[in-house]
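Session log. Operator J.P. requested a structure for one protein chain; no other inputs attached. Running the standard single-chain path with token output.
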Amino acid sequence: MNAEAEEIQDLPSIFSGQPNIEVITFYEGQTQYATPVSAVRYIEQDRRKTTRIELNKELGAEVTTYQGKPVPIFDFAGLMGCEAEYIKNIKLMQLLDEREKDHRNWMNSLEESLRSGSEFTLARDPNLCKFGQWYNDFKPDDELLADIMEDFDSPHRRIHALADRLLKMRDAGEQEAALKELEKEKASSLARLINLFKAAKDRIENITRPILIFIDTESKMVAIRLNAISDIVTYQVGSFTSKDDVDDSSDLNDLNFLAGYLENKNDEPPCVLLDWRLFKGKKSAL
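Structure written below.
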């Protein structure tokens, strides 16, 4: 056996006897992962209907079809023990729906207090309402969403400032003037806030487009749900280090399909290479 043949024989099996490997890269959180292109059979937007078998509120099984045969679906985030980005985004849109309703109700409650003379008990400080408490800590990664969220501050503060100002007018015998001012603010500040809620939800919906990649594990076909695909990259065998050479911790035993790490350039953190031939499956979070 010549030296070149010996060198190929010594290559990691995931490289299939080649000096390099072409991979599809994607992110889960801040970690970059890669799956060999050779294992991927099909990629599509996650829009199809699926069959779900719920074991409890958090776990279950999900199945789709590929070439006329049932194929199990696994959320990659669930395999990693974390919440998928698309699920976080769905929850975020639901939260924004609720906070929009809160502010519609806030304005209606203020109107009722102005008309009836009853006590107004809702938050007057914009930092103390549910939206304000959440808003002050929310830091979106998406730049367009960040710009939209920044625009919330002014109309939100203006709305909450109405309570003290208009209730003082009511108590000073200027009820009609206070009600007219409230109607004006409904058409301006509240309308602006509602438009921003819509813009934020639209943007979140636009960036929430999970995909399915159908992978041949050599024992069966599986579909893996990802938040998005980043790139297709070629790595040389010299950039690869096996998982066992880095960390043989028993904590990683359940993640037996982690083959190792691929070294990135420009001091970027290493990319985690996945070997789906080792994948044994796992109950998936629904």
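Operator note: The chain has two domains: 3-83+210-285, 86-206.
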